Amino acid sequence: MKKRKMILMLVVIMSNIVLLSLSYADSSNEYIKIYNADGYVLDVTDGGAVNGTNIQLWTAYDENENQLFKLKDLGEYKYSFSAKNSGKCIDIYRGNSFDLPIQSGLNIDIWEDNNFEGQQFYFFSDDDKYLIASSANENLVLTSNGSYNGANVTLEEYNGSSSQHWTMKSVEYGDGNNDEQGDEKYIIARVYNTEESLNFSQILVLTLVLYLFWRILLKLK
């Protein structure tokens, strides 16, 4: 009877350890910067936090929260970006009329998360860069309208130009650090492993925990 209680207790403890190890890998401090072909980044204008605040291009600065976004895997190859300064999502602007069609020429802004297709994007590899395409129409992609501070970003039909090419860098943000971790490090794993799966470190921790659990059970027999 005592052995059964001890085994049950160990199962509960080990389960909690596994859950903690899996959740720890998804760091809340990890953000990305999104660069155009000329090195300017997506930036929330003036750090605004209201619905409809414009997304522009700006020189990348280390301590600028306007330029940090968190990538969220929505499943089915779709992703959203939420701004660090407000938590609002990069959005294809249609005002309050979400039923309006997503079409070429629409502006890019931020808007509260509404789970509409205007905030959901696909990634496509193109000439070692990425296209960021609307989930409503894969031929409509985020496009730089120039490369200078304040240049606007809109949704346009794919034309193969460098104005539609983007790269991402992961940024570890916290404890005063804002260190870029290298081109594509964060994104590649997300884009090409879209199914829910464990990364290497999670598998290693899980294997170790299960091994220790097995050894303890052997001793209890």
Characterise the protein shown here:
The protein starts with a helix and ends with a helix. Strand 12 and strand 13 (177-183) form a beta hairpin. The longest helix has 23 residues, at 2-24. It folds into 2 domains: 1-25 and 199-221; 29-197, Trefoil (Trefoil (Acidic Fibroblast Growth Factor, subunit A)), CATH 2.80.10.50. Helices cover 24% and strands 34% of the residues. The protein has 221 residues and is of the alpha+beta class.
Q: How is the biggest beta sheet arranged?
A: 3 strands, antiparallel
What would you call the structural class? alpha+beta
- Separation of termini? 13 Å
Which oligomeric form is depicted? single chain
